[in-house]
Each structure stands twice: as structure tokens, then as C-alpha cells.
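My main concern about presentation is that the manuscript never shows what a single data entry looks like. For the editor and my fellow referees, an illustration may be useful. For illustration, here is how one protein appears when written out as sequence plus C-alpha cells:

***
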Amino acid sequence: MIEVIYILWLRQLKHYWRSKSRLLGSLGQPLLFMITFGFGFGPMYSRASGGANYMDFLAPGIVSMAILFTAIFSGLEVIWDRQFGFLKETLVAPISRTEIMLGKTLGGATIAMIQGLIVLSLTYLLGFRIPSLFSLGLGLIFMALIAIFFTGLGLAIASKMKDMHGFQLIMNFLIMPIFFLSGALFPLENLPPAIYFISRIDPLTYGVDGLRGAIAGMSTFGIYNDLAIIGVLATLVCAIGAVLFSKLEA
């Protein structure tokens, strides 16, 4: 089982490493948001918060954004493999479909983590600093859980689709509300009740809040509450993905 998962994980990493345009292109949007929002809204945030640095607030949200976009589009691998016949060869092999799901989920999550770490390193150029190694370690746990949840979600949705363009449209429809309502760009306090309610049922909200609490010392719901919620959600979506993969037809 471990060997199967490792091979599928390694295959995705090799695809990622060989596609330099994918690596560089996926950094464009996080950098754009970080620079424009960081320098554009920074002075207003500082005045409203009594002198706090907006980059300290923004950096965890942009790192989460990089992970979200990379992770959820891992589902494209399933549709791509289906169109070119590799998925059929994998499904007829004498291995469990749960192993296939786990290998693809871990591969996609690892790639999303790499993207997140690259963006996190770039935030240092804009003045963001992590206070300690313990904070970094806790932050990496949140980054991994965010990556696993959204990779599993993308794979679960992709397992029920055959059209690549339709998958991209659905993902774009889901991603933007998930990102903008997560508190990645603005504080959740004092929001209108309806928007606040939607934010509370957004899974990314707890990943962003936990990551921000871990590496920037600012948390709305409590770090360990966030850890419990995003951990349960990541486990649940992987279980659902495994069930959907068991019914997958190439």
C-alpha cells in the first residue's frame, strides 16, 4: 500500500517539477494580491487598528490563497488521466482505489505546500516575520491540513466529471467566494450578520485563522479550535473522496 501511494505521489511531483511555467505562473496571482493589497490597504488598516502592520495580517491569507488555488485544481489530473487513458490503466491494476485516492491527494497536497512555502518565503521580502520555530512548525501543520482538504475536495469533484472546461468553471465559481469570505484579506469582526454567518461555514476561514494565529499571533476563534475543525474537515473530505473513487469509471 505504501509503495503504491509513494509511486502516485512521486508521479505528481515529477509532473510539477517538469512544468516550470506552472510553477512560475501560479505565483503571479498571490504576488499581485500581496503587493497591491499590502501597499494599497496597508495605511488604512494601520490607522483603523491603531498602528498595526497590515502585512502581518495579510501574509497568512495570501499563503492560504496560494495553497487553495494549487490544491483544488489538482483534480484536473484526474480528468487529464481519464482523457489520455492513464486512469483506466490505474483502475484495472490490482490495487485499491483508496490507495489511488490517497496517493493523488498526498501528491497534490505536497505540491500545494511547496507553493505555499514559496509564497511564505516571498513575504519575508515585504517585511513579514515569523516569531519562532514553534510558530513555524504549527503554521506548517495548518498549511498541510488546508492543502489536504482542498486537494481532496478537488479530486472528489473531479471524480464525478469528465469535462475539463466544466471542472475549471465550477472550481472558479467555488474558489473565489471561499477565498474572499475566509477573512484572508480583511478582519471578520464587525461584518454584517449574513456575511459573518457565511464566513463561519467557509472551511478556509478556519485554516486562515489558524495559520494567522500560528505565524502572526492573531486569531479570532482560537488556534486549537481551528486545528480541530480543519483537521476533522480534512479527514471527512478524504473519506468522501475515497467513496467516490470506489465508484469511479474511466
Q: What stands out?
A: Residues 97-123 form the longest helix (27 residues). The CA atoms of residues 54 and 126 lie 11 Å apart.
